[in-house]
Every structure is written in C-alpha cells, then in structure tokens.
Amino acid sequence: MEPLLFFFKGIAAGFVVAIPVGPVAMLCIRRTLATGIVSGYATGLGAAIADTLYAIVAAFGISFIADILFSNNFWFRLIGGVILCFMAARMLLAPPAESKARDTGKLFGDFASALVITGTNPITLIAFGVIFTSIGVATAGERYEWAEALIAGVFIGSAAWWMLLSGLAALCRRWVGELSLTWINRISALVILTCGALIVFAAIAPDSPIGSLIALPKSVS
Predict the structure, then answer these.
(1) What is the Cα–Cα distance from 62 to 70, expressed in whole angstroms?
(2) What are the backbone dihedrals phi and psi of residue 175, each rounded to the nearest 5 degrees, phi first?
(3) What's the pLDDT tens digit per position in 9-66?
(4) Is 215 part of any domain?
(5) If you average pLDDT over residues 197-215, what whole number do you get?
(6) Which pLDDT does position 50 carry in this prediction?
(7) Is residue 101 predicted with pLDDT exceeding 50?
(8) CA-based angle 28:198:69, to the nearest 5?
(9) Domain ranges, residue 33
C-alpha cells in the first residue's frame, strides 16, 4: 500500500515541477504548432527524462552527484544559457516554411535539446527536494520500493503534463496560419533568448541582483 502512495505522490510532484512555463514549454508549443504533436511531445519527453534523473538524486539523497551539480553550477548555467541563446537565434533566422512539415529525423534532436536544457538547470533538484519534503516523501530513499515507486510516478506525472501541453497545442494547430506561426516563432524565440541571456548573466555575475534572485541554495537539505 505504501509504494502505491509514493507512486501517486510522485505523479503529483512530477506534474507540478513540469508545469512552470519556461524555455522548454515554449519549444514544445512552437514545435507542436510547426511540425506536429510528435515533435512537441518528443521535446517534452526529453524534459521528463531530465526531471526523472533529478528526482532520483533527490529521492536517494545521492550527495556525490548533488555536490557535483552545485560545485559546477557556473558551468551548468553557462552551458544551458548559451544553448538557449543559440536555439533562439536559430528560431529567429529559420524560415517559417518549416511549418507543417513533418520530419521524424529531427525527433531525436527535439528530445535531446530539451534533455540538455532541463538537465543543465540544477534548480530542478531544489524543486524536487522542496516538494518531496512538503508532501511527506523525503524518506523515500530509506526503502528501494518506495523510491522506485516515487521515481516512476515522477516520470509519469511529468510525461503526462507534456502530453497535455502538446495535445492542447495540437488542437490549435489547424487554426494557425503562416503569419500567426511566424509571430509565434518570433515570440517564442524572444522568450527563450531572454531566459538564456538571464541565465548566462546570472552565471557570470552571481552577486548581481539577477544572480541573487535565481541563486541556488548551498544544499538541497
């Protein structure tokens, strides 16, 4: 009975952590509108895998990996921010003609880009640490069956959110014309570019107001 409880709480945690609208959400929506739900969901699935990896660290309290993440926080943020800026630049320069054209060969790229973007954001680990404590599953690491149920739930919850988001975007796809898609592309690119620039700036100037605003705590405990 207890593993089942941890499983359902994991679903809730994964869903909640995935919900905040950020660069990956913009990519998911944009790719769904431009290419279709498969591309959008591949993007979300990459984020779900990254969320699950962070959930594993939070559930088992793997201090070694957590120490690596925090001690290399500068490089994680710098790399993640640069990748976001690069992707935004490509989106701004890409012709709108890519819309409505399915290219399954790019699915792995959609998946990998979201995996890297989410995986280079250690704050996800903090989010899981806080949520696990709040919903009473911080002791999941004491028993493997609890932790396994929790982690499986996190993946399902996160994957469910991305399926919902890409599904909603797919419903709107039929009404999105070329001009609308062009503006959606530009707005998405600007949002992603802004996020990337802020992350890079916070990494370079951690003592600045922006750096302090999104600074990571010293530990996940």
Answers:
(1) 13
(2) -100, 0
(3) 899 999 988 987 678 888 898 888 888 899 999 999 999 999 999 888 888 876 666 6
(4) no
(5) 73
(6) 93
(7) no
(8) 80
(9) 2-74+95-177
pTM value > 0.85: no
DSSP string spanning the chain?
A: -HHHHHHHHHHHHHHHHH-S--HHHHHHHHHHHHT-HHHHHHHHHHHHHHHHHHHHHHHHT-HHHHHHHHHTHHHHHHHHHHHHHHHHHHHHHS-GGGTT---GGGHHHHHHHHHHHHHT-THHHHHHHHHHHHTT-TTGGGSHHHHHHHHHHHHHHHHHHHHHHHHHHHHHHTT--HHHHHHHHHHHHHHHHHHHHHHHHHHH-TTSHHHHHTPPPS---
Asked if residue 112 belongs to a domain, the reply is yes
Q: Phi/psi zone of residue 177: left (φ > 0), alpha (ψ -120 to 50 degrees), beta?
A: beta
| Paired tokens of 9 | 């709480």
Per-residue CA distances from 101 to 34, 68, 80, 106, 124 (Å)? 7, 41, 28, 11, 33
Give the C-alpha separation, 81 to 173, whole Å.
29
Has residue 135 been placed in a domain? yes
User: Could you tell me if residue 63 is inside a domain?
Assistant: yes
Contact status, residue 115 vs residue 48, Cβ threshold 8 Å:
no
Considering its fold, how many domains does the chain have in total?
1
